[in-house]
Amino acid sequence: MKEMMQIFLTAIKKRGHILKLIEKVDELKIKLICEGQEDSLIFQRGEVFLHSDKSDNSVTYEINGQRDSIYRLLEGKEKLRILIKDGQLKVKAPFRTILLIESIFYLTKPEELYKEFIS
Predict the structure, then answer these.
(1) Phi, psi (degrees; rounded to nearest 5) at 66
(2) How many structural domains are present in the chain?
(3) How far is CA 56 from CA 39, 51, 52, 78, 89, in A?
(4) Which residues are CB-contacts of 68 (< 8 A; sequence separation ≥ 6)?
(5) What is the C-alpha R_g of the chain?
(6) Count of alpha carbons within 13 Å of 16, Cβ hemisphere only?
(7) Burial zone of 65 (CB within 10 Å; 0-12 exposed, 13-18 middle, 19+ buried)
(8) pLDDT at residue 113 is higher than 60
(9) First and final C-alpha spacing in the chain
């Protein structure tokens, strides 16, 4: 899962316009839980980074599910609310935060038409 998260981080950093969504966010920590693995994405003041410290109890939002569902979310192939509705992911977050997270993941996906130029 960590390699997929690294790909996501690389993709989002190439898209500065998406980072505008989190420009004024003091700190948004999202713990991704998949098959016994836990990693956290931290969105903070227009930046995003990976955090793997399991002893950090300050993560307030969680996304839990199977590897395939988390990958589809990170790749922007499926919207978060659809994955929740279909029972493929469980999320502990307020609705407004879910919308923000969904926007970030969905907008970060590479456009197929421009894939060869983006890579």
Answers:
(1) -75, 155
(2) 1
(3) 11, 9, 9, 29, 22
(4) none
(5) 13
(6) 0
(7) buried
(8) no
(9) 20
Q: What is the pLDDT of residue 102?
A: 93
pTM (2 d.p.): 0.81
Structure tokens that stand for 62 in this block: 């969680």
CATH number of the structural domain spanning residue 110 = 3.30.1050.10
Instruction: Write the secondary structure of 16-79 as one string of H (helix), E (strand) and C (coil).
Output: HHHHHHHCCCCCEEEEEEECCEEEEEEEECCEEEEECCCCCCCCCEEEEECHHHHHHHHCCCCC
Q: Is the dihedral of CA 86, 90, 94, 96 positive or negative?
A: negative
Q: H or E stretch including 84? A: helix 80-85
Phi, psi of 19 (to 5 degrees): -65, -20
Domain, as residue range, for 28: 2-118
DSSP state of 89: E
